[in-house]
Design a protein that fits this description.
The structure is a homodimer.
Chain A (H helix, E strand, L loop, with lengths): L2 H23 L2 H9 L9 H4 L28 E2 L4 E5 L4 E9 L1 H5 L24 H4 L5 E4 L10 H6 L6 E4 L1 H18 L6 E9 L2 E3 L6 E8 L5 E2 L3 E9 L7 E9 L16 H8 L12 E3 H4 L9 H8 L7
Parallel strand pairs in A: 11-12
Antiparallel strand pairs in A: 1-2, 2-3, 3-6, 4-5, 6-10, 7-8, 8-9, 10-11
Helix pairs in contact in A: 1-8
Chain lengths: ~325, ~325
């Protein structure tokens, strides 16, 4: 995917969210109200519906289906030492993976990548699981969403970043091993300015305009035999840089990068988007409970840019002999 | 999409599920066990994690993110008189819509489609909502997942089928107004044999093999300006025909049809697939709690075929002057 296309997509995302973003930013309580004002539905948990009893009067009982099991979706929330992840059983990729880094946590060097190995996540039922064989010879790296290097405080924590529920197929050269890696490094460097940094990372599947007919289409590869794991078109990170005070300020930054080779000369700020753009594209919400007066803009406070270090050098520096993929 | 391609996809789905389907069919309790054996994660509800307290010891607290709100996904479960639906905020389509029909419910004719109108579902936050304008001039019908004609027992019940959370973009001629409609009629006719029929309907986004490079890709249009609502490549129905006895037999049938014009000569059984194929493709589970000894195969018991009646005639017969779209 060309940079031009990427820019166009980000532009569309931004355009899509322009007025709406502002509106949403200034009315988060209003949004909450609306989302709870379901006409005849209740914000009932599946557990309530699982009883199979009619919640509404009438000659039929649609919720009676649940006597055979609740269809889902189940998002396989996994809480590890180094991350919390949510999984998409249809696309066999995480929906989001959340991490937390601090100057102290990054200073602890109790783990080495060479002792970790990629693992299928047995917490996900076999038919919905991403498998090691899906990635084998797919042409894509097993791309960490929460980087292994962010979890060096214990070997167990680092090992947990190697579950495939923390992984997506990523382009290797020019992306996972290069620009994306520099971007991860940027996130770690934020701990030089902020005492506590939270990062949510995940895949996106964005449409682009087909020049032949002007229609917008989402198109992505599915790897594995039979086809099993989707190859995201893009990845996002939403960054929460905290000032360390209870109820203090949170500097927010959102970035969307194409799953493609990106030239190191490309400014990181070219990939900055409104958080609302990530929310619209992912169907998620990131700041529903964060009061407006506590929100700052990350890239207005720090220099949002990457520092390029070659992959081979980085491997040497970190003493990480095993390849990322 | 050609019928050949469709067949290939169904074949792949079936092939993908062959041995696994059998295995799953005979080990549903085993699957349940596995899905609950999360290594260090818990099947905790988001509510527990929303406290922002560390569930695991360590120098960092990834779950602390939830102080700013739980990202989701939220599936906007809606319980109506005529249906229960789950919504995909990313694709702006339902994930599944469940209904229940009986000979008695279908005999009640207290509603007329001419009094119903398509409605945006205000229970879904604006930025994740499918909008009437997304469908306008899109070239696609607003295709009911639970058909209006299945909810004639009250005007309110029928009206509720017109929420866009019960709708997907469907090809009109040759599909929504033709083959798909005949298929819906087949489902209603099942009440001549079974006293109680449950149907789950929803969209699929299936990969197909690109002949140019042999890779499997999912490709679908997104309608609206800006692009907002995905156009599914296929639709599924999973049918539970109950014998009416408590703990009685349930005849199961699963069908996957392409969102494309289908010739009326095409046998319905060409679209029959193992339920496991729908589960793999949708990420859902439909029969987790249904004991194996209660399961029968629908198309072994009844003649799974459509009866063709022209759309215009059908409109006259039913006194439904307004077009389906």
């Amino acid at each position: 995917m060309s940079k031009k296309t990427t820019l166009a997509i980000v532009a569309v995302l931004s355009a899509a969210s322009g007025a709406a973003a502002a509106a949403a930013l200034y009315s988060s309580s209003e949004r909450t109200r609306i989302s709870r004002a379901k006409p005849v539905s209740s914000p009932a948990s599946p557990d309530i519906l699982r009883t199979g009893k009619a919640l509404l009067t009438g000659p039929v009982d649609p919720a009676g289906l649940f006597q055979y099991g609740f269809p889902g979706p189940v998002n396989d929330l996994a809480t590890r030492h180094s991350l919390v992840s949510s999984f998409d059983r249809r696309l066999r990729n995480p929906v989001w993976v959340a991490e937390h880094i601090t100057p102290e946590s990054l200073a602890l060097k109790n783990a080495d990548r060479k002792y970790s190995s990629f693992m299928e996540d047995e917490a996900v039922p076999p038919k919905f699981r991403a498998k090691l064989t899906d990635y084998f010879r797919s042409g894509y790296d097993r791309g960490h969403q929460v980087p292994a290097a962010d979890a060096r405080f214990s070997q167990e924590a680092m090992d947990e970043t190697f579950y495939l529920t923390n992984m997506c197929p990523q382009v290797g050269n020019g992306f996972n091993r290069d620009y994306w890696s520099h971007f991860e490094d940027f996130c770690r460097r934020l701990t030089q300015t902020y005492p506590s940094v939270r990062i949510v990372t995940g895949p996106l599947y964005l449409p682009r305009r087909d020049p032949t007919d002007g229609k917008w289409r989402v198109s992505y590869e599915v790897v594995g035999n039979p086809p099993n794991v989707a190859v995201p078109t893009h990845f996002y990170k939403v960054i929460f840089a905290e000032d360390g005070k209870t109820g203090g300020n949170v500097s927010l930054g959102a970035f969307v990068l194409p799953n493609a080779s990106i030239h190191n000369d490309k400014p990181l700020t070219d990939f900055e988007v409104p958080i609302e753009a990530v929310e619209r594209a992912s169907g998620l919400e990131f700041t529903e409970k964060l009061p407006l007066e506590r929100r700052k803009r990350l890239c207005a406070e720090v220099n949002c840019s990457i520092i390029v270090r070659q992959f081979e050098d980085r491997q040497k520096v970190k003493g990480l002999p095993s390849p990322r993929r």
